[in-house]
Amino acid sequence: MKKPVIAIDGYSSTGKSSISKIIAEKLGIVHLDTGALYRGITWFALQNCLDKEGEIDLNKLFNSLQSIKLEFKRENDELVLYVNEINVSKEIRTAEVSDHVSLIAKQKEVRDFLLETQRSIARNEGVIMDGRDIGTVVLPTADFKFFLTASIKERTKRRYEELLSLGLPADRNQVKENLIERDRIDSEREISPLKKAVDAIEIDNSNLTKSQTIEAILYHLKKIN
Ligand code: C5P
């Protein structure tokens, strides 16, 4: 049987990646956390493309894009992102990267560069991809599409706890402001804005545990099959 292609989109910190990872394991398909790719590019820009004022020089970044090698490697049962052979799995979760990623992600050059990377992964096999524009742009013909939402209070709590579990500095208010600002930039941008695909199933998981959200998704996958 053909393995399914599944798109999971939604707001920041609705659990998209951790939920997708578990579903991928259950179904024996590949999982791609596309947010990590945007974060990887942002980390690279902060390391290599700053101007004299310490701001990201976008032209410098655009000229460097083709030289950036993004790779996921499996380590201790986790997919770990490498940028030009450097393990950046922790660095891409820092507040500095979170504060800049949406500005980098709205650039056409960056989106075009990552579009091909994402589509080539889905070409030959079943995949579950999570992000902001998967159901609308990256995989518009996906077999299943979901759109996750949750209250800002709940999302702040989840992101704050995630940062603490990674041993990264975390401030609740700063986390909340960052989520609101990223959602705003992601929803309002011109190219591939964050929005629910017309044929996506929306799940508000404010009051659901991670397992309950997974159950809800699996229920729909079975029902449609
Ligand atoms: O999913 P995560 O919160 O790690 O994504 C970080 C940022 O990457 C998002 O806020 C958004 O700006 C960008 N992104 C995107 N399109 C995707 C995935 C992520 O623009 N498909």
Automatic annotation (TrEMBL):
Alphabetized Gene3D superfamilies for the sequence: P-loop containing nucleotide triphosphate hydrolases
CDD domains referenced in this protein's UniProt entry, alphabetically: CMPK (cd02020)
Domain Cytidylate kinase: start-end pairs: 6-222
The organism of origin for this protein: Chryseobacterium oryzae
Primary location: cytoplasm
Transmembrane segments: none
Annotated NCBIfam families: cmk
Annotated ATP binding sites: 10-18
EC numbers, comma separated: 2.7.4.25
GO molecular function: kinase activity
Name the record gives this protein: Cytidylate kinase
UniProt catalytic activity: dCMP + ATP = dCDP + ADP; CMP + ATP = CDP + ADP
Name of a matching Pfam family: Cytidylate_kin
Similarity annotation: Belongs to the cytidylate kinase family. Type 1 subfamily.
Key word Cell division present: no
